[in-house]
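Severity: low
Component: inverse-folding endpoint
Summary: output formatting inconsistent between runs
Steps to reproduce: submit the following structure tokens with default settings.
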């Protein structure tokens, strides 16, 4: 992967924390900063497709424990009866 050099301003306290972490982990300060940039980039990325492409019908409220248990039990029974789970 090719890299591009850039300059940023950082809080001196943050840089001190990065310096300590780099020493403790045995990696360069630059590597920690690159990891931080990658996390920031991924957190702000706009995806071409939605995370969930299917929608599910429901009651519009959080189901109770009993409802969840019953639905799972029904699914297990159906999977056991037919030989495969859906």
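Observed output (run 2 of 3):
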């Amino acid at each position: 992967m090719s890299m591009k050099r850039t300059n940023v301003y950082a809080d001196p306290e943050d840089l001190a924390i990065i310096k300590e972490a780099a020493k403790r982990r045995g990696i360069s300060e630059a590597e920690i900063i690159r990891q931080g940039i990658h996390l920031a980039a991924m957190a702000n990325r706009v995806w071409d497709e939605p995370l969930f492409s299917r929608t599910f019908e429901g009651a519009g409220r959080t189901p109770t424990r009993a409802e969840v248990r019953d639905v799972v039990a029904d699914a297990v029974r159906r999977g056991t009866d037919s030989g495969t789970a859906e």
